[in-house]
Amino acid sequence: MNRIEALFARTERKVLSMFTTAGYPALDDTLRVCRALQDAGVEMIELGFPFSDPLADGPTIQRSNEQALANGMSLKVLFGQLKALRDNVDIPVLLMGYLNPVLQYGVERFCAACAEVGIDGLILPDMPVDEYKETYQALFAKYDLRSVFLVTPQTSPERIRMLDEITTGFLYVVSVASVTGNKLAVDDTRKQYFQRIHEMKLKSPTMVGFGIHDRQSFEESTAMLRGGIIGSALLKVLETSKDIEADVRSFVADIRPVV
Amino acid sequence: MVYHVDQRGFFGFFGGSYIPEMLVPNITELQSRYLEIIEDASFQAEFRQLLRDYVGRPTPLYPARRLSEKLGYPLFLKREDLNHTGAHKINNAIGQILLAQRLGKRRIIAETGAGQHGVATATVCALMGVECFVYMGEIDMKRQAPNVRRMQMLGTKVIPVTSGSRVLKDAANEAMRDWIAHPEDTHYILGSAVGPHPFPDMVMRFQAVISEEIKTQLPAQTPYQLPHSIIACVGGGSNAIGAFAHFLDTPSVVLIGVEAAGKGLDSGETAATIARGREGVLHGSKTLVMQTEDGQITEAHSISAGLDYPGVGPQHAHLARTGRATYVSVTDEEALVAAHELARLEGIIPALETAHALAYLPRHQAGPDQPVVLCLSGRGDKDMATYCPEA
Ligand SMILES: Cc1ncc(COP(=O)(O)O)c(C=O)c1O
Question: pTM of the full predicted structure?
Answer without folding.
Answer: 0.97
